[in-house]
């Protein structure tokens, strides 16, 4: 690892890195086990990635003096989280936390009657800090119902109920491939929102 080219002014800056998941670098919930398989990595690829990332973590700790392999968010975007923390000394935060803080989300939630959020695919991995779970956890503190509209519902999505999600709906209105669904995104989203809000308006 060669860091001589780093701009010395970086040492005088306070940096924040926004990550979309809180996965550590290694282990059963590390990026090589939890994230890369969704990108097409085979079991053999996962083993190779685990060895490579473990080696990187060892070298990084020896060179920089700190070991961040278990840091929440270290495995975000493959390994960007640990790079941001170890090399640039960033304060690693979940992106949804940063956005909600900037948007003054607490005030908005306090005034809301219903919270609607979205995700491309809602599944067990969403619990690792994805946007809808960040929103539902915040809304839970105000006892607000949360509806998730997702492109699809994957394995383990029901666990989101324990994190403040009231209900979740997939957009597809019947069996279809992703290639067929994508051009109809706006149409499907509008139809699902209309059905949802009709139910909400006519609730007892």
Account of the 3D structure:
The chain is α/β, with parallel strands linked by helices. It has two domains: 87 residues, Alpha-Beta Complex (Glycerate kinase, domain 2), CATH 3.90.1510.10; 99 residues, Rossmann fold. The chain is built from eight helices and five strands; from the N terminus they run βαααβααβαββαα. The protein has a three-stranded parallel sheet. The longest helix has 22 residues. The mean pLDDT is 85.
CATH class of the largest domain: Alpha Beta
Kindly name the structural category: alpha/beta
Distance between the termini: 64 Å
Strands in their spatial order, largest beta sheet:
3-4-5
Q: What can be said about the biggest beta sheet?
A: 3 strands, parallel
Count of individual domains: 2
Tell me the fraction of residues in β-strands, as a range. 5-15%
Rg from alpha-carbon coordinates: 20 Å
List how many beta strands DSSP finds: 5
Predict the CATH topology of the largest domain.
Rossmann fold
Order of helices and strands: EHHHEHHEHEEHH
What form results from the Cα inertia axes? globular
Low-confidence stretches: none
Q: What is the overall number of helices?
A: 8
Quickly give the CATH architecture of the largest domain.
Answer: 3-Layer(aba) Sandwich
Overall mean confidence score, pLDDT: 85
GO biological process, one term: organic acid phosphorylation
Protein name: Glycerate kinase
GO molecular function, one term: glycerate kinase activity
Pfam family, one: Gly_kinase
